[in-house]
Amino acid sequence: MEKLSSDDSNRNVHGLSHGGKILLFTCKRDPAVSVRERSGLTFRSFYFEREGNAFLNATEGATVISRKPSAHVDIVTCKCAVDVQKRVKTAFVLVTKMSEKGSSFKYSLLALRSSHRLEPCIEFKLPYQMKGKVSILQGPTVMWSHDNSVSYTSPEAEGVRKIPIQMSKCLFGELPIQKGQLFALGLSEPLLANHSPTLGYLCEGGQAFDGSLVLPHPYICITQCMRVLTADRVDDVLRCTVVAATSNQQLVLFENGTVKDTCEVPFGQAEDIQMADTGRNGCLFVVSFNQGHVCAVWKETFQMASCWSDVDSAHVDDFLGCGTEQILLIFRNNGISSGPLEKFIITDLCGISYSCGQGSEAPKASLPPQENSLLTLQALESRLQSGLIVLQELEREVRVKDRVLQQSIQVLTDVLSGRETVLSQPEQEGLVALWDSDEESNDETPDDKLHETPALSSRPKIDKLWHRITEEQLVVGLILTADSAIPASGVSLSLLTEPGQNSTPAVIQTRSQVFWLPARGPSTPTLSSPSPGFAFSEPAAKRSRQHIASDDFSAGRLAVTAVTKLAPLLTSGCVKCRAMLHYAEKAEAVFPGSGPTTAVLHCGEVSLDIRNLCQKPLLQNPQIKTDEVREDLLSLLTVLDNWVLRIDSPDYSLGDIDGWIKRREGFKKIDVSPEYLLLDSPGSSAPMLLRWHQINPFQGDLSIHSSQLQMLQFLDSMLSYLPDSCFIQPVKRARSQSTAQKLACALEKEVLSLREGLSSLLCVKDEEERKERRAGHGETPDSGSAEDLVRCCREAWQQNVEKSRLRLNPVVDAGRYREMVQSISQVKMDSDLAALCQLNQS
């Protein structure tokens, strides 16, 4: 729906949405300087202001269509289409000027090249007036039908062209494949040989195709408007998904020419179908009907969402600038107001709702601000995480109090029983002693005081917070000091958006990894972890003391990274993020009954600056040893997919594979971590990291950090160097396949455990039966009479019948059965956890 209501001074008002704004085109007569009058086209653009809950005028302009006072100028249609030459979506308006005698009509397609200037794009003449459906498609291309013939024109066509096939009941559209294909669909008249009654014609290629691949033949006559959602060519056969509105008051979804789903709509005479993407809440089909009716249908469920009446025009765009699309409904003024944007509703049917002139007539300033459900959910998530942090701190204090009470009870029991009381150190409980014991102060020497220093705080200490932009993703890294007394297991990093004036912090979806770094020494540190995700686990006895007592652990640091997509942050306007460190506090060894707890630490904020962060010293000079180079390396290891391949050569030694890799053109050693080699050639789409670990002369591990295509290309060239008898097998699947591989292994383990558990129970039962048969096999009747022999045979037969019945319904040992059920339950829990991880990733 494009036409808008207007007053007496304006004629033929049309509107469209472009770039989050509303454009209004009006044909009117403006008095000139001279006595003569001229017919012109004026346009205005409006943007929506949330605080004022109104559309404000942004720009306006005008252009002259004709200087003849008797010329009759009208707007035919206006539409946003892709300008192929400029590769941008542009607003176009088609106007017509009738000659004085009415024998010819001159049409002009004008493009809005800037916010204040209209430029002519196509001009052509017709001996008749366009009536019925006129479409502006990509190119731009103007397509219309007249007397069972379809005509079109574009800047490349250089004039009006007519399709060489006569068609009735025509429908126009474009296929979203490659550069796009414009097509006309209808009933061929007369019926062509070797063609179906439903015929389609591609305007750019000049080819006819079977139209039933788009719409079935019975639906051509009743389809009023359509929209192609997806299209592709598979083995030279067109595959597409189409939604169409029919005259039977139905919205029908077609897949490859067959009906997939239908939805009853409350109105008839559909004119246009638009699609609104509301983000995580799904997509909506917005169908406009004649006589001012509009309805919305959910794409996923194909169910009616809402409907409206007395609508002048409906538009779909991001009017609020929040990254998702909304529906703008402009209602008819009915002569009450001259402004075309006085009565409207902006909604996405998911929480966003702004209205004016509907319902209450209270002053605009007193209207309460409308809230978005998405912002509400983000605020609830942030409040939930803040409440979780407070709850964790309270739980930690409660556990400390419980341990003190337990020790007090133990001391009281020991005093009453006459036993010696052994108390733990206050630092071990995270407490501060109010006084020191005289015996301990007398016994301690200065050397003991140096070695037995008070326990460090359980909170980790931050050495540096950094961030990089790598492969269209934001990587935030955190390096902990060497004296941070936390194990690497259970450590992760998450990001929160920085709250603005009218917003609340939101949790950003991230993927976290942990790396192991040597401590900062006289020389620049190197990355010593063999692969991302390596976690150092501290012994239980040292975890209980909460201070660094191991030389190996004190010699190294932890680097924690979090990666997230950059585009949603920039789209939402978020330029600052908060870094939150999640770590596990281990239980004390003296109280094994208490379990591990998790804590959250705010580590600082990062600000996005694309101009500075895009500079990567590692790619410019891998031979330098700086902190920035190490951070670039950590960013690449976090973003790139990882493959670890085991290479075995049973017949011949592998040779100098490390030297062969270094001799390849483009590979450079990274001095900050010499075990890694970098390939950053101009032809490759992304950098590539390699690490070779020689286990023995016949076996080694190759770590590859790159895209899948680069990995396959490198392995193809490497196979020419390796011996023919060697074979390569993956040690670890790619990151994109890890959850699926874990789920498959868990299900396989579950099936094997069930089969082996039942088999073991039945085998034990059969073994017991065989022992009983061997024990009773030698028994013979004492007497050789026939009656005793018959009696013995009858008893043996009855025993066999009973054993057969028990074999069909076996009775097993309760203890073994309980052990088997516990084992299978544990395996099933692991498989359920793997399935949940796979579901979250998908």
Care to describe what's here?
- This protein is an alpha+beta fold and 842 residues long.
- Among the domains are: 1-140, Lipocalin (Beta Barrel), CATH 2.40.128; 163-264, no CATH class; 278-327 and 334-360, no CATH class; 640-732, TATA-Binding Protein (2-Layer Sandwich), CATH 3.30.310; 739-841, no CATH class.
- The chain contains 15 helices and 43 strands.
- The strands form ten sheets. It has a six-stranded antiparallel sheet with strand order 39-40-41-42-38-43. Strands 1-2-3-4-5 form a five-stranded antiparallel sheet, with no helix packed on it.
- Helix 13 packs antiparallel against helix 15.
- The longest helix is centred in the middle third of the chain and has 45 residues, at 373-417.
- It is extended, with a radius of gyration of 39 Å.
- The relative contact order is 0.05.
